[in-house]
Amino acid sequence: MSTASRLDVIKPPEPSRAWTKQRIVGYFLVSLWGLAALGLIIFLVRAWNPELFSRYAPSYFSGLIITIQLVGLSLLLGALLSLPIAYARDATSKWAAWPSYMYVYFFRGTPLLAQTFLIYYGVGSFKSPLEALGLWWFFRDAWYCALLAFTLNTAAYQAEILRGAVKSVPSGQWEGADSLGLPRLLTFRKIVLPQALIVALRPYGNEIILMIKGSAIVAIITVYDLMGETRRAYSRTFDFQTYLWAAIIYLAIVETLRNLIEWIERRITRHLKR
Amino acid sequence: MPMLSKVSLALSAAAFALSLGSAQAQDKIRIGTEGAYPPFNALTADGQLVGFDIDIARALCEEMKAECEFVTQDWDGIIPALQASRFDAIIASMSITDERKQQVDFTDPYYTNSLVFVAPKDSDLMPDNAGDKAIGVQEGTIAAIFAEENYPNADVKAYPSQLEAWADLQNGRVDSVLADFGVQYDWLETDGKECCEFKGDVVSSDDKIAIAIRKGDTALAEKFNTALAAIRANGKYAEVNAKYFPFDIFGE
Amino acid sequence: MTCPIDGIAIEMDRFLSLLSFSPDGWGDEIASGLLVTVSLALATLPFGLAAGFFIALAKQSSEPSLRLAANIYTTIFRGLPELLTLFLVFYGAQLGVQQLASFLGIETAIEINAFVAGMVALGAVFSSYASEVFLSAFRAIPHGQYEGGWAVGLSSFQTMRLIIFPQLVRLALPGLSNLWLILLKDTALVSVIGLSDIIRQVGIAARVTREAFLFFGIACLLYLALAMLSSVVFGYIERWARRTEDVK
Questions:
Q1: Which of A171, B95, B203, C8 has its C-alpha lying 20 to 30 A from B63's C-alpha?
Q2: What stretches in chain C show pLDDT beneath 50?
Q3: What's the rounded Cα separation, in Å, for the pair A33 and C75?
Q4: Is there a contact between C29 and B47 (Cβ–Cβ < 8 Å)?
Q5: Which of A100-109, B131-140, C99-108 bottoms out in mean pLDDT, i.e. has the lowest?
Q6: Which of A25, A127, A234 has the CB atom closest to B2's CB atom?
């Protein structure tokens, strides 16, 4: 028999799927979501108000820009700050390891909201000493205060991500490079870091998403980010759709990012696939 | 999802049952206020509500022979909370505006208000140059809307409550605070005495302050209006007025 | 001129009187805030765990529609900022219930208070993250465990309860303890919808006394103390869950 004729054999039809309990529940729940989506669309269409849109769409956009700037910059600065912290965390000297342990414990153990208030209202209440130090211009501005709070916060989380990722690289990699006589910094940069980054990609991605979501609290300290603009619009119009639009924008950003990170992960791990 | 929807259903059913229970004992009037707007409504260290609004509300309740209960609620959620029946009336120095009228009904006004700037004593700020600098206001108040409409170039910073705006005026984060005359007056008499003073005349006047109630709750509005007229007539209003301000706050 | 030690002593006295439990002090208010924070987190936990467990079951079901429904749920609640979820539940659910009631012709005041709104919102967020933890724990249990259960004549439910669940708890515990700490911190957000938790109480104290640094510092320390207490408790639970492994 030739291979072609073997392929021609007609497969038996798929057994028709029975209406199991699971399937009924599943269809029910999916249709509930469908109804909710339909309800949302009907609500938004009925509440559609061109005047409202032309008045608040630009401010939503500028709020979105503020959110992106704040999160982007604090993630970047936090990444820089996380390097010495992660390094000191595993230092043999107690004087380096303890402070960085305390730092990480403090910023991971307390709410970002409390940290932001502590910096904005707490540190901000020491005006004259800050003026004497020439730092008042910084603490005067709510945006800078938020940037500082977010940077310090994300540095603690990023330090832990970095540390975990570097530790996940087997020590044989270090030893191998050592035996070739490579300097330690070069080993770290060329051998350990690329492997660590693969491990760290997903946690870093999650951290970006967490910061975007967490940044919504700056609205409370007079920064007009996306959430701040939403609250302002709501306090003027008392129209609930202001919050729904914000929800749609946030969801779209987070979903886009999540898919982007998954795509990058698939790409950089291509060589690991068998 | 399945569990949660059941849970939230059960919870709303529980809340439903609870409020049915309270609906039967409905002689009680629940009054929503902010508790962060001295001298009109503020919280003391032991959690007591005090202030002009509170005293007027008590006088009104006494006049109506109704039992009243106060509920504190942040300003930005105070109208939604009224609509959601968390309380029956807002007595929190709320100005009558067209936007608010679309959402709630108002009683007759119980005092008249005007907006005024306050700034540090050594500042040369005046209402006509206030727009070049940072103005502190409370979010969702007529001061916030006024500042944005009349000073388009100003850096308007909106705070969740009035107290935070003043705190940042003293901290030097904003150059002036725009707010109701009554609250600014009281603050300059107390905490702000050393640092600050009025700058220029009032910038807008004749805002009518009234009690907000749910749309269509005319029976309650009538009760409040009758009681208000009564305490105006019997001197109770003047007594409360004198307790807080040496001038007449009611306006014509 | 006073000696600096005296100055420090006077400052300390002032701080202590600010934090005292007397009517002028803020100690009692902060303590009541602590109680609200802890009870909100504790009240959210069982609902969040149960919902997370069922969502994980749905996610690993062979039925595509169930998986889809569960995935939509987690996409929404992991994608929205927690603060926004809270507002949506607090204002939105209220409006929704109100409209439903008037549609059905029920004339009554229906209220969802800040505590319940906080519980629902935080529970939704917690359960969507917990479902991921449970899911990866499910995947770590070999299929032979189910088959073994069925082979000795246990029903699906019994297999789940007696064989899978005990292993699942052990595998999921580290992830869940992490989520508990996140939940504890997320409760801080309810201060924004007016619930008198730690943050709200210290915020009032800071505004009235103008000692913002002291009071927000105290708040941070309280959260740290709660986190430490939680890790002690989780240490016990973990040891208890592993007790069978230690006996060898």
A1: B95
A2: 1-2, 248
A3: 12
A4: yes
A5: C99-108
A6: A25
Same fold: B27-112+208-244 with B113-206: yes
Residue A44, in any domain of the structure: no
**Residue A221 sits in a domain of what CATH number?**
1.10.3720.10
- C27-82+122-210 topology per CATH: MetI-like fold (1.10.3720)
pTM metric for this prediction? 0.84
Please give the tally of structural domains in chain A. 1
Is CATH 3.40.50.2300 the classification given to domain B113-206? no
Chains that touch C (3 or more CB pairs under 8 A): A, B
Has domain B27-112+208-244 been given CATH number 3.40.190.10? Answer: yes
Residues 6+ apart with CB under 8 A from C87: A243, C193
Among A110, A220, A223, A227, most C C-beta atoms within 10 A, so best to mutate, is: A110
CA distance A29 to chain B (A): 8
Q: Which tens digits make up the pLDDT trace of B174-207?
A: 999 999 988 999 899 988 888 899 998 888 877 8
Q: Are C63 and A20 in contact (CB under 8 A)?
A: yes
CB contact under 8 A, C220 and A106: yes
Could you tell me if residue A10 is inside a domain?
A: no
Q: Over range B6-28, report the average pLDDT.
A: 46
Burial environment of residue B150 by CB neighbours within 10 A (0 to 12, 13 to 18, 19 or more): middle
In angstroms, the first-to-last Cα distance of chain C is 71
